[in-house]
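Possible regression after last week's pipeline update?

I re-ran a chain I had predicted before the update to compare outputs. Posting the input and the new output here so someone can diff against the archived version. Not blocking, just want to make sure nothing changed silently.
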Amino acid sequence: MNQKYTLTQEGLKNLQEELKHLTEVARVENIRALQEARAQGDLSENADYDAARDEQSKIAGRIAVIENILKNYELIGDEANNLGKWVKVEFIGLEDDDDPVQVYKIVGTLEADPLQQLISNECPLGRAIINHGVGEQVYVKPEEGEEFWAKILEISTEEIK
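New output (post-update):
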């Protein structure tokens, strides 16, 4: 049974663009590199050929992964929850928090990148705020670290500043 992947519309578009780039650009460039390396002669000690074969393997692997995701995805966009939306939260009662107000976009696990304020719908904070509205306080219980409360200050489909 294949896993279902949760994607935002933006995440779906990015994967489709990456697949197009890999199949139409990267793979074509790699084939050229392989042909040039073969033209150099003896393949047994040809570093260019080995590097091109490694790259060919990486490209083929990534294409297979993306194709599997595109065959087994669920699109985020249900208005009843906060998936795919930007949420401004205030952390309540965290002692070491210099900035208790943060903004995150709740995305699927494939798109999550906490450094870019993209959190997964499966992480403790994402899971806690997924079906709640502005003004609500939610209890967050991380796998490690102290438990805390967060208050939802704003929810928007547009990035919150």
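Follow-up from reviewer: compared with the archived run. Residues 86-156 form a domain with the Chitinase A; domain 3 fold (CATH 3.10.50.30). Marking as no regression found.
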